[in-house]
Amino acid sequence: MMQAKREGFEREPVGAFGAVKPAAGPHADPAAPVVLRQAKRLSTPPLARHEESSATRLRKGFAAAVSAEKDHGLAFLFLPVAMGAGAGLFYMAPTDPALVFVAAGLMVALLVAGLSREHHITSARCAGYLAALFAGALASGIEVHNGALLLDSDVTTTITGTVQAREFDPDGRVRYLVKLASTADPQIRRPPLRVRLSARSSHMVLPVGANISGRARLSAPSGPVMPGGYDFAFRAFVDRIGAQGYFYRAPVEATVSSSRAETAAGWIQSFGLGLRSMREDVSARIREVLPGDPGGIAAALAVSDRRGISKPVVEALRATGLAHILAISGLHMALAAGTLYIGIRKGLAVFPALVEAWPVKKIAAVGAMLTATAYLLISGGSVSTQRAWVMLTIMLVAVLADRPALTMRNVALAAMVIILISPSAVVGPGFQMSFAATAALISAYAAIALRARHRSAAPGGSASGSVPRRWLAFAAKALLGLAITSLVAGLSTGLFSAHHFHRVAGNGLLANLLAMPLVTFVVMPAGLLAMLLMPFGLDAWPLKIMGQGLEGVIAAANYVHGLGGDFSVGQIPLTATLIAGTGFVILVFLRSRLRLAGLALIAVGLMFTLPPMAGPRPDILISETGDLVGLSSASGLASNAARPNSFVFGQWQTAMRGAPHLPPVAEPKMKSGSDPGAATEPDAAILERLLAAATLRPSRFQCTGRGTCVAIHAGAAIVAIDQAALIGAACDRADLVVVAIPVYMSSCRSGAMLITSRSLRRSGSLSITVSTVSREAQSAAGGQDGYLKTKARPRFKVNATLQGVIRPWTVQRYYEWRTGKFDLPG
After folding, report:
1. DSSP 595
2. Phi, psi of 197 (to 5 degrees)
3. Which superfamily does 155-257 belong to?
4. What is the pTM of this model?
5. Which candidate, 553, 557, 560, places its Cα nearest to that of 298?
6. How many CB atoms lie within 10 A of CB 762?
7. Domain-wise residue ranges, the chain
8. pLDDT, tens digit (0-9, with 9 covering 90-100), for 634-664
9. What is the rounded (10 degree) CA torsion for 615, 617, 620, 623?
10. In angstroms, rounded to a whole number, what is the distance separating the alpha carbons of residues 127 and 112?
11. Is-contact 230 173, C-beta < 8 A?
């Protein structure tokens, strides 16, 4: 019977109810269901049908993913990205964009977005992103307009002003932030408004608000130490600190009659001075109870005062990725406000009647907001603290409005507020790393929560065990959560850390796993309790508990540091960071499978960090003053100084992946040929002798003192001098001449490249790549003086940090103090 049925069925398409029409015949089954025959479709090859269905499924899947992303409000998340791009493009421009055109572009974009919102949603969104870009640029223009006036050149003068703030370094020396009232002997024509000066001599430390006077050496803020490096002059410009330096002798208290020095007028300024005095009192109390490194770290956590922390501890924290605990950021503010928030909720929960009558959660949110504001004021209000306060305040306001607090939308809103307030933060590492970590953590835990909901919805997914088993599961989940938090935060900030600092913490995950439980559950709660009890004199025992936790943090940092610290990754190209950063934004913002495109972009960005796509490393590095020259080779980084400037040379080394230092080879000085008994003097014969020695040791400087050095590197003869008398002889014998004094010569007649401190003042530091050239050695008889000569000079590809960049933080490089005018190009 079954065989008859199988033979009687025709091959027909499935009907509407999943049945087919049986064939008529003697073997037909009368009980079989009967359905109408469907119209036969045009036959297509099986392979074509398969390909068509795959393309259809892909198209439908993509459309469904895009629709899901729209439902999650993806368009709003990219508004701060557009604002940040506008701010970044404004700061990267070689000249100041006209704010009139930026404001006009903003108005036009807003008008187009408003008019096309009803009927052309795509055009409206594009116009909205364009408006956000113009808004970021306009905010940057306003910030630049209010920036500081930077000192144009180093000078020794007598300053008089008012102390606005003071800091103490680990050695006990004090640094004053002084608002200048006047300068004398000589009088500076373009005096900065504020300067930061260190007092090395022992003296009676002047309080905040006192008038101060003394003979000081003022230095202009330096630019990047190499192309693509961090611009310290830009940071000083936005921080409104026009110069830095030190007092020659102990400063004294002075009487200032100028109206500029009346800084105590007004209740706002008086309030600020009172806050600074309170900070110093809190720091002194903490150090009194907790001496040594624990007290220094506790003061850094409380009032951002890092004095007293020894250099070995700072190095161990930095190398293990724990240096973030020294800066008051979102972590510390969240722990302080969150501890109080939980404490208020749990405390009020003891009274059921109160919980039913009052909104306990909102009361706790208000208390946490007040705590965060107090923390902002007493800590000094640094940029990172302001950023953390804005983000936390937005989240607490969401709690008051009965909305979810930790959402990507709140992070985007916080980023927009910060960009409007301080747009320069966009190009700094603090903003990038903090928001990258926050966005990555929210995205990761959202995915984990979604997976947990699906698991609990499955049959048997919410089974519970005994009490010990539940407590063990809770501890395991807490430890796993800490590990996930450290891993996600480390991976998300690693890209930006590598770009800005050229370093990555090798054992950062282990260090955070060991130290962060102490910071979260011991250090910050005890510190918050100590601050609350300090006005009543009951802060000693909470501070001691805080100190015990910090000792554990230091022990963990030293242990992990002993296993191996951070490692240098070298300078990361900007292109690689932009591509990988775009992929990171896509990865954390999107929720569907479209986020996999972010992983692909991150992989492409990482490819751009590898040779040959990363480009060749520079062969020669020259500081912006011309007194330090570095030669990069496979064996290390050679310099023309036995003890180079650690600030500059240290950054060169990290950018060159930790290249070891190759000091110069000292050659004995020669005496003048005209008078054998005369003192040592510069002479052309010195260069010839140094050139002969340099041919035997390529890529290594041969020096007679720091002022006269010669090297043969990458096929080029390089001479670094600080004496004008040797310029002519150096031009005749070298391919590249670096003069560390300001001379008015701009080129060598011999065709050699001439670089002076005068030209470096405008161009900034240089990185030079030497093209490979073939050198032919002439015989001693045919060659001049028997030294190596070349038929064609090598070609130099010069990359300058500030060449052609005329912005408010670089224009001082074109100021001539002798004439009082700007000598701008063109």
Report:
1. G
2. -130, 140
3. Nucleic acid-binding proteins (2.40.50.140)
4. 0.81
5. 553
6. 19
7. 1-37, 67-145, 155-257, 329-423, 574-607, 620-673+680-794
8. 999 999 999 999 889 999 999 998 889 999 9
9. 90
10. 6
11. no
